[in-house]
Amino acid sequence: MENRLKELRELAVSHRLKRLSENLINDMKRLYKELKIDYEPRWFAISHFLIENKSASINELSKATGYTHPAVIQIVEQMIKNKLIETSKSINDKRKRKLVLSLKGTEIFNSIHPIISDIEESIKEINKEAGYDILNIIESFENTLKEKSLYERTILKVKKRQFDAVEVFRYSPSYKEYFINLNSEWLQKYFEVEKVDLKILSNPETEIIDKGGEIFFARYENEIVGTCAAIKLDNENFELAKLGVTEKAQGKQIGRKLVLAVIGFAYARGAKAVVLETAKNLIKAINLYESLGFKYIPDFHKSTYKRPTFWMKLDLR
Amino acid sequence: MENRLKELRELAVSHRLKRLSENLINDMKRLYKELKIDYEPRWFAISHFLIENKSASINELSKATGYTHPAVIQIVEQMIKNKLIETSKSINDKRKRKLVLSLKGTEIFNSIHPIISDIEESIKEINKEAGYDILNIIESFENTLKEKSLYERTILKVKKRQFDAVEVFRYSPSYKEYFINLNSEWLQKYFEVEKVDLKILSNPETEIIDKGGEIFFARYENEIVGTCAAIKLDNENFELAKLGVTEKAQGKQIGRKLVLAVIGFAYARGAKAVVLETAKNLIKAINLYESLGFKYIPDFHKSTYKRPTFWMKLDLR
DNA sequence: ATAATTTACGTAAATACTTACATAATATAT
DNA sequence: ATATATTATGTAAGTATTTACGTAAATTAT
C-alpha cells in the first residue's frame, strides 16, 4: 500500500502539470476580464506571429504556435468575428488563405502590451520565489522527451519484462500434443493443415529430433503458449519452422524468444545459416524475422506447401 | 520587436506546460492501448483512492483527486459502465453515494501494476536526463501560487501602474465646468441633482475654496476624468464630498487617488477626522472608503439630501 | 501528360474537462 | 421548532482542444 501510494505521486505528474497550466491560463483570462479588455489568451500566439510576420496562412500559424490546424482555424474564426483578423485568398497558391491583423487587431494587441509586461514580471517573480526557471525546465523536458518519449521508454521496459518472463525449454515426448495444437491454431486460421504439415506435426521425433533438429516450447505464466522447430537441412543449414504462439499470448515477446532459441541452437551446432519458409499474410511473423536480420531470398527452393510461400535467410557468419 | 519576442517566451509558459502534460497523458493512453489493457489513465486516481480507502463518496473523490465533482461523476459513470465500480446509497446520509471498486475493478487495477511501475521508472529516467525532479518543481510552483496567484500578483502591478498614471491637481476657475459635469454624471445615474447639490456644484469657490476647503481633479491619459472636494466643517473635521469619476475611466485607481488627496489635505491642515456622506447603492465608492479605513457611524448627522444617506468617518489621529 | 502523392484547408464529431445552475438532505442559528 | 445556510449530488451546456475524414490544388513520379 505504502509502496503504491508513492508510485501515484510520480504518475500524477501529468495531471498536476495540466492543472498548473490551467491555473495560469485562467488567471490570465480573469485579468483580461477584470481590466475589461476584450481579449482571450488563446489569441495571443497568433496575434503575436501576425505582428511579427505581417501575414501568414493557417498552416504556418499552426506550425508556429503548436496548435493543430483545426484549432488555428477555430481561433482565427473567433478573431475574425471580433474583427481582429482579415482574410483573403492567397494569389500564388489557391489553397492557401492569407491572414493579416486588422487595424483593430493591431491596436488591441498593442494596448495589452503593458498588461503582458506585468504578467511577465509576475511570472519572473514566481520563478524567483519557487526557485526554478520554469521555462528552462519545460525546455529541458521537451528536449528529453523529443529524444525518447515516455511511450518509447516505457514500452522498452515492458518488452524487456515480458521477454524475461518467458521460459523456453526443449522437446520431450510429453509435450507432443502442444506441438500439434499450437501449430494447428494458426494453420487453420490463415490456411489449412496440409498433409506435409501433418506429417511433421504428428511425428516430431522421427521428423525433427532424430535428424539432429530440436523443438522448443515457451511457457508464460505457467502455461505453454508457443513452440518453434529447428530442422537440420544439412551440416551448414537449419530451417526454422512451425513457429506458433497462441493468439491470446501474442505480443508478449514469446515468438522472439523462440526464434532466438532456434538461432542459438543452429549457431551452437556450427551452422552457417538459418532459413525459413513463410507466407505474405503472416505479417507479424515477417516483421519479427526482419527485426532479427532475416532477409528475403528469391528462388531459394520451390514451395513445400500448397499455400504460396517464400523463403528468408539469416547468415550466421 | 526583439523585446516583444522575448516576452512571448515567458507568456507561453502555460501553453507549453499544457502541451507537456498532454504529451505524457497521450503516451500513457497509447501504452494501455498497445498492451491491450482496457483502462483509461483518467481512471487511475479514482481507482487508486478506492483501493486505499475501500469506499468513498463523489465529493471525497473530488477532493482527493482535484477533479471537480461533475468530472468525478462522469469518470465514475464510465467506470460503472465498464463494471469497475459498484454504487449504492449511503445509509447514514441519504445524499451521499457509496462507491466501491468491483472485483473486476480491483483485478484490472492490480494487473496494470507492473506497467505503472514501468511508467514510474521511465519518469524517473526522464527526470534524470532532464536534470530536474519534475514533481518537486510542480510542488514548489503550486505552493508559490497558493501564496499569491498569478492573478493577484499581476493585478497589484496593474493597479500600481494605473495609480502612477493618474495626475491629481487642485482647483482653478477654468476647471469649474468639470466639477459640475463629473458630479452630474453620477448624480443623474443613481439619483437626481438636488438643490443642495446644485448650490455647491455651481459655486465651488464661495461654498468650498473660500471656506478653507479644496477641490481636486484627476487627469488620466490627458483627460480630466474625476474630481473630489474637501469641505472644511470646523477646525477638526473635513468632509469628503462630491467624488465623481466618469464611467469609462472607472476601475483605474482614480477615485482612490482623489480620496487620498483629500485625506492628505485634511491631515496637512491638522484635522482630526474626515467624514463623508454616502448612499447604500454606491457600492464601489463604499468599498473604496472601507478599504482606506473609513467606518460607518450611525446617527452622526441628519441627512443633507432627499436621497437616503449615511455617514462614514476616518480618524486621522 | 497522366497518375499518384502530398499539401492546405475545411468540417464534424469526440474528448475531457469546466461553469452554472437546480434540488434534496442535513446542519446550524435564532 | 423553524428559517437559513451548507453540503452532496445531479444535469445541461459551454470550452478548448483533438481526431478523423473529405476535397481541392499543387507537386512529384512515371
Number of domains of chain A: 2
- Assigned CATH superfamily of the largest domain in chain A: Gcn5-related N-acetyltransferase (GNAT)
> Which parts of chain A are unreliable, with pLDDT below 50 for 5 consecutive residues or more?
1-7
Overall form of chain A = elongated
Cα(first) to Cα(last) distance of chain A is 52 Å
Multimeric status of the protein: homodimer
Proportion of helical residues of chain A? 40-55%
Helix/strand class of chain A: alpha+beta
> Mean of residue pLDDT of chain A?
90
Number of helices of chain A: 14
Largest sheet of chain A: 7 strands, mixed
Q: What integer value in Å does the Rg of chain A equal?
A: 31 Å
Q: Please indicate the percent range of residues of chain A in DSSP E strands (runs of 2 or more).
A: 15-25%
Query: Quick one: CATH class of the largest domain in chain A?
Result: Alpha Beta
CATH architecture of the largest domain in chain A: 3-Layer(aba) Sandwich
Largest protein-protein interface: A-B, 75 and 75 residues
Strand tally of chain A is 10
